[in-house]
Amino acid sequence: MSIETLTSAVRNIPDFPIPGIQFKDITTLFQSASHLKELSEILYERYKNKGITKVVGIESRGFFMGPAVATRLGAGFVPIRKPGKLPYKVIEETYTKEYGEDIIQIHEDALTKEDVVLLHDDLLATGGTMAAAYNLVKKLGVKKIYINFLIELEELNGMKHFPKDVEVSSVIKF
Ligand code: AMP
């Protein structure tokens, strides 16, 4: 299956959730067994030789593929969540969004300095969310971090947030 086929399975919803946003709906991609399998294969092939020990997914759409990829890679899965959701001790990162500030949290004992992390989310827009997640994971002193998105909105240039020595990749580009 080609990347074009995967791309055409993403549904564009104009003006959702607010006017001016072209929302990329991945439910149409995931509901197809063959598309889902192909996505999982692509991610497995891309990361199988990187020694990934933990996949870290960002709430909430990073929870769709994150555990599936972790299973294929033989890695564990760790959630990054919004405040008040994780039950144990957390560390957090505050970041600025278009309107106001947001906070994300991770359990303080979720990762160790031996971990090689694949940080995953569904979509790269401005990059603010993933940049905060990257800083959060860095605080736990892991060995190495890879970053992956299913979709990248190229014109927003979100890649500028990440250091040059970090391997960042996306599967579908708009
Ligand atoms: P950003 O921090 O600007 O890179 O935004 C990324 C987060 O917002 C991801 O978790 C996405 O799920 C969501 N997001 C932002 N823009 C869109 C969009 N056009 N379509 C779907 N999800 C989006």
Entry summary:
The chain is an alpha/beta fold and 174 residues long.
What does this structure look like?
The chain is of the alpha/beta class. It has one domain: Rossmann fold. Helix content is about 30%, strand content about 30%. It is built from five helices and nine strands. The chain has helices at about 5-10, 25-30, 35-45, 60-75, 130-140, and strands at about 10-15, 20-25, 55-60, 75-80, 90-95, 100-105, 115-125, 145-150, 170-174. The strands form three sheets. Strands 4-3-7-8-9 form a five-stranded parallel β-sheet, with helices on both faces. It has a two-stranded antiparallel sheet with strand order 1-2. Strand 7, helix 5 and strand 8 (about 145-150) form a beta-alpha-beta unit. Helix 3 packs across helix 4. The longest helix is centred in the first third of the chain and has 15 residues, at about 35-45. The radius of gyration is 16 Å and the shape is globular. The model has no long low-confidence stretch (mean pLDDT about 95). Adenosine monophosphate (AMP) binds near residues 23, 129 and 158.
